[in-house]
Structures are given as C-alpha cells and as structure tokens.
Amino acid sequence: MSFSRRHSIIQYDYSIDNVILQRINQVGFIFTPTLSFAPHIDWIIGKALRSLGFIRRHAGSVMSVRCLLILYTSLVRSIVEYGCVVWSPRTKCDIVRIERVQHRFLNMVSRSMGINHEPHDYKPVLIALNLSTLSERRNMSDIKLLNGLVSGVIDSPDLLSRIGFRISGTTRSRDPYYLASVSKNYLEDDPLRRAMSLVNSQTS
Q1: Taking the model in full, what pTM does it have?
Q2: How far does CA 104 lie from the centroid of its chain?
C-alpha cells in the first residue's frame, strides 16, 4: 500500500527472503493523501447507522433488550470502534457525530425499558445498560495500548522507544509521561502522545 501527494505514485515491489509481498488496497481504513480520516469517519458512521436501521426494522419490536444490546455491540458498535486507536477523532464535531450512533440505539431501547430521559441526555440509559460513551471507550483503547507497551504485553521496541517517561527531578509535576512540545497540530493526533496525555490528565 502506497501513499503520496503525487498524481502518479511510484510502485515498488518489496520483498522478504526474495518473496515479493502482495499489495493490498485497504486494511479496514480509508486513507487520503493528506492522511485525513474524515472520509473514514463518514464511512463508518453511515455503515453503523445502516446496521442499526436493519436491527430496528427486523428485531426492534420482537426481541428483548438484552438481545438488542448483544446485536448492537456486535454489529454496530464494533464498526465505529474498529482500529479507533489509529483514527480517533480530534474535532468536537466528529466526536459528537460518532456518539449519535449510540444515542440512536439508546433512544430505541429506552422506550422498551420505560426509561424517561431529557432530550439529548442519555446518561440514565447508559447507567441502566452498564454502557460507557463511545468517547470513553476510545480513551480506554488508547490507554490499553500504552499499558500494553509498557508492561511488555505488546512487543514493539520501536513504539516503546517513543514513549517519554518522566524522570523524577526537581519539578513538582507528578505526570508519569513527558510530552515534548510540538509545532504542528496534526502531531497532537499521534496515538501514543494522545494516550500519554490521557494518563497524565488522570494523575494530575
């Protein structure tokens, strides 16, 4: 798979032990030459809503809430969470758009459960179903990646070398990770930097 800003991309055959590696068109994500994930987010939202619509039409009125929850987590939520460490949205607009997928499901089951809630306030339904927001789950995925690298569960020396551990010194900061300043906004989207920032915010 190759990415370039050029209209004509140079194709090169990579090989391991003289065996040419097969080229692929996609790995479950939609990339752009600028490495923007906006088209991917649009795609997963549309796909998830179609799956949710299918569940609502064919099972919404005949299945128990427990069965609907299983269908939602396996057929809908999995779509908007696949590989989220890579493409996790940064803008408030995209975060809200993705969250609306789960809100539609919560609105559907709240009627069956007889749970009254204020418009756009789905916290009572989340608590009743023991669910977290999609944003919270993405944060946990980021932290799980970081913990996996630090504990050795994930074996990736290259990624591990990019983790900035804060060495105890004269500063009063209790943050476990050191975050170097960056000059470009897109560098804030780095998964490891995002995960380290999350952990620091929980310990400060």
Answers
A1: 0.82
A2: 19
